[in-house]
Design goal:
The chain is an alpha/beta fold. Helix content is about 35%, strand content about 20%. An eight-stranded mixed sheet has the order 2-1-3-5-4-6-8-7. A five-stranded mixed sheet has the order 11-12-13-15-14.
């Protein structure tokens, strides 16, 4: 038997580092995986622990689950033991995706057993995979350490829910064979670019002449690194970008009646990713009437086609809010008679000075000034 070490596959199991506090049980399918740490402020001297998952073909959920559990204080930098031997699994400190038991009090996180119906809660009803189970029980700790806040801080809870929605839930659903849409119709296109597919492709190819457990575990180590790095990227994006943007959008919603008495026009004080936040906050704050247009300043290069050169300048955008987060339809698109027009022709049609363009679909338009963009939005509301 062999161990995968930080430097690669180069040590027999009986030559493990002296940090191993308990001997591994001898079994023909037992593999030890020692992968690099990606921990966020984990203790340096945590007790040595062993976390088990199954050997053989792997999926995104156990690769990510093994990565995440090693970010916790309890299982910081634990050894990953890949085996299906029940006697070995019984002696491990935690077991993921194998063993037929879900018991968080004893750190058992399998989801394949009959009768398992555990979900994340908080309005989410997708059955959990092993990754979802680890996230449910340890996600707040991981996020709190990344934000350097207490687990009871409201921002930690907000990110806990947001990351499940945007990142974790799809992994749970794919692993449990849950369709994304309630329809029997075949998809219009195939998407094999999501993280579950990319992790799956790291399994040994059937044409590979080396199908050894050692080679398989090298692949699993890469799978852990891939899934884990994208998880941490999601956590850090939400902390760095998502959370500040949500605060900005919330403030702008609160001030919408100062912009227009209708309450249907919102102005972004500072441009940020606003669309998903707007839908969520409208529901959370019970906004009525719904916002139809969002105004924001755009600093960009404008292509002057005839002169074939760029002119740098500030403009204001009038963007129609979509009917739903995934829809290309707008709640109230800019008027049909404006669409496809530009500059003087558009200003003449609208009787508003400074107009720049309106897209053919009516989802967005532009004006040279804030005042002009606001007049465009107000006029569009009445048409």
């Amino acid at each position: 038997m062999w161990a995968i070490t930080r430097g690669g596959f180069n040590q027999k199991i009986f030559n493990l580092p002296k940090t191993l506090s308990r001997p591994l049980m001898a079994t023909s399918n037992l593999i030890r995986v020692s992968s690099p740490s990606y921990s966020t402020s984990s203790p340096n001297h945590a007790p040595f622990k062993r976390v088990g998952t199954h050997n053989g073909s792997f999926h995104c959920d156990e690769a990510l689950g093994c990565f995440m559990i090693r970010l916790t204080d309890k299982f910081s930098n634990s050894e990953i033991i890949r085996t299906r031997d029940p006697k070995v699994l019984e002696g491990l400190d935690a077991v993921l995706d194998v063993g037929g038991v879900y018991d968080p009090n004893h750190d058992r996180y399998d989801h394949h057993q009959k009768g398992f119906e555990e979900v994340f809660g908080h309005g989410f009803n997708t059955k959990l995979s092993s990754a979802g189970l680890v996230y449910k029980h340890f996600g707040k700790e991981i996020i709190a350490k990344e934000l350097q806040l207490g687990e009871d801080h409201p921002d930690v809870h907000r990110l806990f829910l947001a990351i499940y929605k945007s990142f974790m839930e799809a992994i749970d659903a794919i692993d449990n064979g849950i369709n994304q849409f309630d329809t029997d119709k075949p998809p219009k296109y195939v998407n094999n670019t999501h993280i579950s597919s990319r992790v799956g492709r790291l399994n040994l190819d059937w044409t590979d002449p080396d199908q050894s457990p050692e080679k398989e575990n090298e692949a699993f180590q890469r799978a852990m690194a891939l899934a884990g790095s994208e998880f941490l990227e999601s956590v850090r994006f939400h902390a760095r970008s998502w959370l500040p943007a949500r605060s900005i959008v919330r403030e702008c919603i609160a001030e919408r009646f100062d912009i227009d008495p209708s309450g249907e026009i919102m102005v972004l004080k500072r441009f940020c990713p606003w669309k998903l936040h707007l839908f969520e906050l409208e529901a959370e704050l019970k906004v009525e009437p719904l916002i139809k247009y969002v105004l924001y300043e755009s600093l960009r290069y404008i292509l002057i086609v005839i002169m074939t050169q760029d002119e740098r300048g500030k403009q204001w955008r009038v963007q129609a809010v979509a009917a739903s987060p995934d829809s290309f339809e707008s709640r109230k698109p800019l008027p049909a008679q404006w669409r496809g027009l530009r500059d003087d022709e558009l200003s003449k049609e609208t009787r508003i000075s400074g107009c720049v363009f309106v897209h053919m679909s009516g989802f967005i338009g532009g004006n040279q000034t804030y005042e002009g963009a606001l007049v465009m939005a107000r006029a569009a509301l009445k048409m």
